[in-house]
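Quiz preparation item.
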């Protein structure tokens, strides 16, 4: 059967087919590799960030602990002052004109006044073994919180209150037994101003939106750069988006790191207990703060991939033309031969491959 003129027209160019198929294959390979690389980078980055946040949380907790110990040492010094006990005054009339009770009251007042002038206290006071106020500065509560009193009685040593809210102010409440004849006679309770904790927490810089805060064993926020969250008694449940696993690990004094979502935003979180207190330090950083670096790397990798793909397409196009052009010439000559043209010469090709054999064979055929 003879082919008509329309049948002899090229419907699909060999050059286009080679270019299309090869480019499609390269795109598939590059796309798969790009996705694998992106997922691997994100997974690796998360793992590295969590591993690095954990020692950071522990170090920050130790910084807070050192500052708390400094305040505790001051309380011990005040409670251990000889003027706080009757033994420091002596038996009988201390000055010859005043009874011992009046003398000891003046002596204790002098100690607390000196301490208040040197250190930043909201209040400083002495309480009896039942938590009743014996003597103190203005603003001292008439009685101690029952829970705090119970801790003082149980430990019979330096005790730090679990909360940091004191009469609509923020402060660190500490209690220390005052000894007489090696027996606890009174409890010295002081409320330091919150500024020290605030300065420490605010100095922990964690990216653009990261922050450090403290919670107690009940999951109540005791320290935060935003003091209103402490005053309002915000709970860890709100800051962690209700993540029960994170709440359990933080409030039981564990050191670790995890990831959870808060208001639809993924957070990288590390936590560590503050020794000597019932608090834990929590570091919380939005994952997006670090994902921007990963995304920038992925964009750069994508641009490099596109550049390589463009170069590959150009090389493929050059190779395709080196194949399709001789084939097109041979095809056109064979069409003209079928039309009875026995005179047009066949363009010789010196490529050393099948194309050269094909052109020579066509020349011999003509």
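Solution:
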């Amino acid at each position: 059967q003879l082919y008509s003129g329309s049948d002899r027209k090229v419907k699909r160019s060999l050059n286009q087919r080679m270019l299309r198929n090869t480019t499609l294959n390269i795109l598939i390979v590059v796309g798969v590799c790009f996705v694998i690389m992106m997922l691997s980078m994100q997974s690796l980055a998360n793992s590295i960030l969590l591993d690095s946040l954990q020692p950071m949380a522990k170090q920050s907790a130790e910084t807070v602990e050192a500052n708390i110990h400094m305040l505790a040492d001051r309380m011990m010094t005040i409670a251990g002052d000889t003027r706080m006990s009757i033994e420091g005054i002596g038996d009988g009339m201390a000055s010859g004109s005043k009874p011992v009770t009046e003398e000891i009251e003046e002596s204790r007042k002098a100690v607390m006044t000196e301490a208040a002038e040197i250190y930043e206290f909201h209040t400083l006071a002495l309480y009896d073994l039942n938590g009743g106020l014996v003597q103190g500065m203005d603003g001292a509560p008439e009685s101690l919180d029952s829970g705090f009193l119970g801790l003082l009685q149980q430990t019979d040593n330096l005790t730090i209150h679990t909360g940091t809210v004191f009469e609509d102010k923020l402060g660190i409440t500490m209690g220390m037994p005052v000894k007489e004849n090696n027996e606890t006679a009174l409890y010295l309770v002081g409320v330091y101003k919150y500024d020290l904790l605030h300065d420490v927490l605010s100095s922990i810089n964690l990216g653009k939106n990261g922050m450090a805060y403290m919670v107690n064993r009940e999951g109540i926020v005791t320290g935060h750069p935003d003091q209103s969250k402490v005053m309002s008694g915000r709970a860890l449940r709100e800051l962690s988006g209700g993540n029960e696993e994170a709440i359990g690990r933080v409030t039981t004094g564990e050191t670790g790191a995890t990831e959870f979502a808060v208001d639809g935003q993924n957070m990288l979180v590390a936590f560590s207990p503050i020794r000597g207190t019932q608090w834990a330090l929590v570091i919380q950083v939005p994952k997006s703060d670090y994902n921007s670096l990963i995304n920038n790397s992925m964009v750069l990798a994508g641009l490099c991939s596109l550049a390589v793909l463009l170069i590959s397409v150009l090389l493929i196009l050059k190779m395709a033309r080196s194949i399709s052009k001789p084939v097109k010439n041979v095809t056109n000559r064979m069409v003209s031969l079928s039309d009875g043209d026995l005179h047009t010469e066949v363009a010789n090709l010196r490529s050393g491959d099948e194309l050269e054999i094909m052109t020579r064979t066509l020349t011999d055929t003509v």
